[in-house]
Design brief:
The structure is a homodimer of 467-residue chains. Chain A is an alpha/beta fold. Chain A has three domains: 98 residues, Winged helix-like DNA-binding domain superfamily/Winged helix DNA-binding domain (Arc Repressor Mutant, subunit A, Orthogonal Bundle), CATH 1.10.10.10; 106 residues, Aspartate Aminotransferase, domain 1 (Alpha-Beta Complex); 234 residues, Aspartate Aminotransferase, domain 2 (3-Layer(aba) Sandwich). Chain A has 15 helices and 15 strands.
Chain lengths: 467, 467
C-alpha cells in the first residue's frame, strides 16, 4: 500500500475537499484513510517530496500534515526510515451501533398533564428580553455563574414571590435553579448533610420527584392523599423529617390542602424539627377563587418553597427557584460542590421579563384562556362521557376524570396513543394502588379549538367502549 | 386589638397600596399585619360590614379577603363567633439571619486561568442567533427537553467535532450537557452503573473535576504528570479503570500528551477494559502548531470526549458536550433519571451560531488575539521578571510561570489580591505537593492593553521582592 509499492494514486485515495487550509485538509484526509482501514498499520506513506509532486502542492504542506499526524499518534517517523502508519482501527474493540433515539409518537392532541400552552409562549417578548440583557450585561456577568443564581434574578424573584404568592423571601434566601426537580435535588442534598435522610412524598404524586429524591440519596416514604390533601397523621407514622407537598394544588388529585391540615403539617414540622418542601408548581392558575398564598409565608423557618416557569412559560427554559429557610442557606451552598445555576443570560432575561410586567401579563392572559378552555372541557366531557365525573377542577392545568370501575384505563391510554391522543392514567402516579379508575387530563397544551375533537377521540378510545 | 375593643384605625394599620384588586390588597395587608405580629394570634378582626365601612369599600371585598386568609390558615372563622387570627409568628422558631453573599473582591487585572476574554463575547451575533431560533422553533421544541440534548444541536456538534477536532462522532453519540463538569458527572454515574467506581485524575489538575467525580460517588486517584503528560505507568498501579486526561493541553502544566503516552494510554484502557475521559477543554487555542486532534477519534470505543464553550465563548452560557462510546450510550441515558439538558433555546442558538460559521470565525479571531497577547505576556515577563521562566506556552489560555524557590507563592497571591490582581498558585491545583514554585497565569480574561500593567503589579506582588 505504500506509494512506491503500489499503483495507488494518492490523489484518488485522499479526499482533499472541505474547508480549511490545504495542510489541514491533507491531515484530515490521511486520518480518515487510516481510520477507515484504507491505510493499514505498518504501511509506509510516500516521502513528502513525492506526495507533494503528485498532489501539486508545496512539500511544506505535506511535512506539516505528517507532523500533525505524528503528534496525534496516527503516524510514526524515525530518522532514516519511512514514515509509517502507527495505528489500526482493529485496536478498537468492535462495538454495537447504538439504536437511534426512538422518535416520539405523533401526537395530534395532547391531554397529558404537565405542560402549559406551548403555542402561546410569548416569543416576541422573550426574544426582546434576551436581546436587551445581552446588550446591557456587563462583561463580568459572563464569568462563571454564582451557583445560587444571579443577584438580579434572585432579587426580582424575591419581590415577585412576596407580591404574588405571599412568600417570605429576600434575595439571600432565593436560589435560582433549573426547575422543581433540580430544587428538590439541592434540598435533599442539604437535608442529608444535616442528617435528614428520610423524605415523604404524596401518593399519588409526580414520579419524577420521587426519582429525584431517590437519586439524591434520600429514602422516600409515600404518604396517602385524601380530599383534604396529604394525610398528616399517616405522615407522622413514617420516619420522615421532611415532606414534599403540593399545598395549593396537589398533583394529580387537584386537592387544596385544608386549613386544618396546613396547621397540622406546620405542627408536625416543628415537632420533628423537620421541613416541609412546598411544591408550588402551578398555583398561579386558580380560576374560581384567588390563588392561595404559599405555606412558606407562614412558616419560613420550616418551609422550603419550590417553583418554576415550566408550567407557566415552558419547561424548555429550564428555570425555577427555591426559597430556603435562613438556617438552610449555608447548607444549600455547601452540600453540592459542583452545583451550577442556569445560564446567566436566561436568568437575566427572566428578571427583565418579570420586571417589565410581562410575566404578570402572560399569567393574566393564560388564566383567562385556561379558564375558558377548562369550562369547555368540563362541558364537553359532561355531554359526551356522562358516566365520568371530574374533580380537582378549581385550579391548575389538569382535572381528574373518574371513570366507571369496568373501564380499563391502561388499555384506554394505549388505544388513545395509537390514535394520536396523549393521555395519562392516574395509576401511573400511584405508588400503592388506590381504589377507583381515573385519567389525569391536562388541558394546558391543547389548541383552543381542539377540545371537542380531543374529547371525541377520548370517548372512542375508552376500553371497553361505554355509551 | 379587635375592632370593637380598641381605637385602632384599621385604615391606618393596613397598608392597602400596591398592585392588584382591592380584595387581594386587603388580604395581603392583613397577612402582613399578622406576620409582623401587629395582629396577634387570637385577636378578632372586625365584622366584615364594619371594616367595609371604615375602608369605604363593598362588604364583598372584605369577605373575599377574609375567606382567602381562612383558606391559608391565617384566620379561623366559626359560625356565630368572631373571625380571629389563628397564627402567630412566635410559632416559627427564630432563625439566624443569613450573612449576605460575600461580594467578590475588586479585580483590576485578572491573571487567573480558566476564562476566555469576556469583553470579546460576540454579543450581537449571539443575540441574532437567539432571536432567530426563538422565531423559527416549532412549538414542540418548547416541550420537556430530551435529557440527551436537542437533535439539531447534537447533529451540528457531531459535524463540528468531526471537522475541527478529528472526533468520531455522530448525532446519537453526542450528548449535550452544561459543561465539562456536568459531562464528567454523567460519565461517572454511567461508569458506576457499569461497575467502574475508581477513577484517576491528573495531579496537578483542575480541582473541580476531582470534586465532581467525588460528588458523583467515584473514588478518585491522583496520578502524577510529567513533561510528556500523564504518567501511564503510575496510572496502571492504581485500581482505576477510568482516567480523566487533558491530552491536547494538560491543565495546569500545559503539556501535550506525547505520542508514546497516547499509545500507552490506549493500551491501558484495553487491558483494564476501561475508559479514557478526554477533557478537551481548550484545545481550540493552539498557536505554534495545528490543533492536535482528539484521542477519541483513534479509539472511539474506549474514549469519552468532553468539551465546552466555557473557554471559547463564556462559562455563563452553560453549554458543553460529551461524545460517548456507543456501548455507553444506553448507560448514560439510564444512569441519571433526572438529568436535564441545558435550556432548549440556548441549544438551538449554539447550533445556529455554529452552522452560520460564526463559531469558527470567533475561534479564528480569538486565536489571533490570544497569540498576540501571549507573545506580549512572555516578552514582558522576560523583561520584568527575568528570574522566572514560562512553560506550557504553546496552546490554551494560560502559561506556567516558574519562580525561584525562595518565592512564597501563597503570600504572593495574597499580596496581589489585595492590590486588585487575581493570581493562581500551582500548589492549589496539586493533591500531592510537588517540587518547584509556580504561578498559573491565565491571559484569557485580560484587556488587550492591560498586559504591561498586570505584569508590573505581579512583579510588585512577589514575596519576598525579587529584582
Amino acid at each position: 500500500m505504500a506509494f512506491s509499492q503500489t499503483n495507488l494514486a494518492w490523489s484518488t485515495l485522499l479526499e482533499l475537499g472541505g474547508r480549511g487550509r490545504l495542510h489541514d485538509r491533507l491531515a484530515r484526509a490521511l486520518r480518515t484513510a487510516i481510520r477507515d482501514g484504507r491505510l493499514p498499520e505498518g504501511a509506509a506513506v510516500p516521502p513528502s517530496r513525492a506526495l507533494a509532486e503528485e498532489l501539486g502542492c508545496s512539500r511544506w504542506v505535506v511535512t506539516e500534515a505528517y507532523g500533525q499526524l505524528v503528534a496525534e499518534g496516527y503516524l510514526s517517523a524515525r530518522v532514516g526510515s519511512a514514515t509509517r502508519v502507527a495505528w489500526s482501527p482493529a485496536a478498537s474493540p468492535p462495538v454495537p451501533r447504538a439504536s437511534r433515539t426512538p422518535s416520539r409518537p405523533v401526537v395530534r392532541y395532547d391531554l397529558a398533564p404537565g405542560l402549559p400552552d406551548l403555542r402561546a409562549f410569548p416569543r416576541r417578548r422573550w426574544a426582546d428580553a434576551v436581546r436587551s440583557v445581552i446588550g446591557s450585561a456587563v462583561h463580568y456577568d459572563l464569568d462563571v455563574p454564582d451557583p445560587a443564581g444571579h443577584a438580579v434574578l434572585r432579587s426580582t424573584l424575591a419581590q415577585y414571590l412576596r407580591r404574588s404568592r405571599g412568600a417570605d423571601a429576600d434575595a439571600t434566601s432565593v436560589f435560582v435553579c433549573a426547575g422543581v426537580t433540580d430544587g428538590l435535588v439541592r434540598t435533599c442534598r442539604a437535608l442529608r448533610a444535616d442528617g435528614i435522610t428520610d423524605l415523604a412524598v404524596e401518593d399519588p404524586g409526580w414520579p419524577r420527584l420521587r426519582d429525584a429524591a431517590g437519586s439524591a440519596g434520600s429514602r422516600v416514604h409515600p404518604v396517602p392523599v385524601d380530599d383534604d390533601g396529604l394525610r398528616v397523621d399517616d405522615l407522622a407514622r413514617t420516619p420522615a423529617r421532611a415532606v414534599v407537598v403540593g399545598a395549593a394544588h396537589q398533583f394529580p388529585t387537584g386537592t387544596v390542602l385544608s386549613p386544618a391540615r396546613r396547621a397540622g403539617l406546620a405542627r408536625w414540622a416543628r415537632d420533628v424539627a423537620g421541613f416541609v418542601v412546598e411544591d408550588d408548581y402551578d398555583a398561579e392558575f386558580r380560576y374560581d377563587h384567588h390563588p392561595v398564598a404559599v405555606m412558606q409565608g407562614m412558616d419560613p423557618g420550616r418551609v422550603v418553597l419550590l417553583g418554576t416557569v415550566s408550567k407557566t412559560l415552558s419547561p424548555a427554559l429550564g428555570l425555577g427557584w427555591l426559597v430556603a429557610p435562613t438556617a438552610m442557606v449555608p447548607g444549600l451552598r455547601a452540600a453540592n460542590p459542583v452545583a451550577t445555576a442556569p445560564p446567566v443570560l436566561d436568568q437575566l432575561a427572566l428578571a427583565a421579563f418579570i420586571d417589565r410586567g410581562w410575566y404578570d401579563a402572560h399569567l393574566r392572559a393564560s388564566r383567562r384562556r385556561f379558564r375558558v378552555r377548562r369550562d369547555l372541557l368540563l362541558t364537553t366531557l359532561a355531554g359526551r362521557i356522562p358516566r365520568a365525573s371530574a374533580s380537582g377542577t378549581a385550579a391548575g392545568l389538569h382535572v381528574l376524570l373518574h371513570l366507571p370501575d369496568d373501564v380499563d384505563t391502561a388499555a384506554t391510554v394505549r388505544a388513545a396513543a395509537s390514535a394520536g391522543l396523549r393521555l395519562a392514567d392516574l395509576d401511573d402516579y400511584r405508588v400503592h394502588r388506590g381504589p377507583g379508575r381515573a385519567l389525569v387530563l391536562g388541558y394546558g397544551n391543547l389548541g383552543d379549538t381542539e377540545v371537542p375533537a380531543a374529547v371525541e377521540l377520548l370517548r372512542e378510545s375508552l376500553r371497553p367502549p361505554i355509551d
